[in-house]
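Teaching assistant's notes for section 4

Start the section by putting this record on the projector. Ask students to predict, before seeing the second block, whether Ornithine cyclodeaminase will look compact or extended. Collect guesses on the board.
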Amino acid sequence: MAAAPSELAYVPFVSVENMMRLVHRIGIETMLTGIADYIEEDFRRWESFDKTPRVASHSAEGVIELMPTSDGDVYGFKYVNGHPKNTKSGLQTVTAFGLLANVHTGYPVLLSEMTLLTALRTAATSALVARYLAPRGSDTMAMIGNGAQSEFQALAMRALCGVTRLRLYDIDRKATDKLVANLSGLGFDLTACSSAEDAIEGAQIITTCTADKQYATILTDNMVGAGIHINAIGGDCPGKTELHRDILLRSDVFVEYPPQTRIEGEIQQMPEDFPVTEMWQVITGAAKGRRDARQVTLFDGVGFATEDFSALRFVRDKLESTGLCQQLDLLADPDDPRDLFGMLQRAKGNTA
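Reveal the predicted structure now:
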């Protein structure tokens, strides 16, 4: 009879069910704030990370991507897709899972769902950036695109920036109705709007988060007044944008990792030498963020691997003593590391 797997064979796995339990145990706004703290901490040590644009496989229907990084001690990656037409057949636009591993042994130390966690980390990143770039005292956000990410954005902006008034617009009114229903009773002042122009009235922060895989003009130049912070998070692949290029020409543009954003973000419309500022430089004080009340700031957010790394670190740290994971028999661990075949043979009697 083959021996039971050793402790080294098991890797903690956080399922969707357990991720939801973890979020509710911690509290969603507390978790958003905690993930933002980890993202900020990792931005402050930006230069210690391996960085590369994500590896993308594009098709007519969408994109499948791998997002790797390492700080020299821990390695992390995320698998994620983006298929906007999925919702028409009852599927998610975005699904994901991720892993952390020990660099020194190569052994995985955490495997986790990341569909929910990506929504949380995307919102946490947006709100962290807005804390540095949005006008002081901002309390009103226009949310253009009211899909799966929108509630997370709203809650993160409140938790980190104090936003309590939301002006909402989506070309699909059912999406806006869904968002209003989900946030009703949670302390927001909610206004469903009939157009993007209506939504931005009185807003100090504008978040665009649409999913269509095409060039689009969600905001035109004449819609954006002085002093606005734009959180452009829907553009995430070549051939997809949300803002008219004239907005970029009169904005100070902030990005995560320029080599990736120039391929996927709003700045793919611009020349290769179009000036941008990296957010890690703002967070460490190496570069200016918001300078004055009339400045238009634009976060061209496409999501970067270090943010997923930060979110996975947060989850791993919070899992201790919760029991909110399963131990997967994921790694072969023979008694003699040179005798993998022998381990296989000894298990033969258990296959009947």
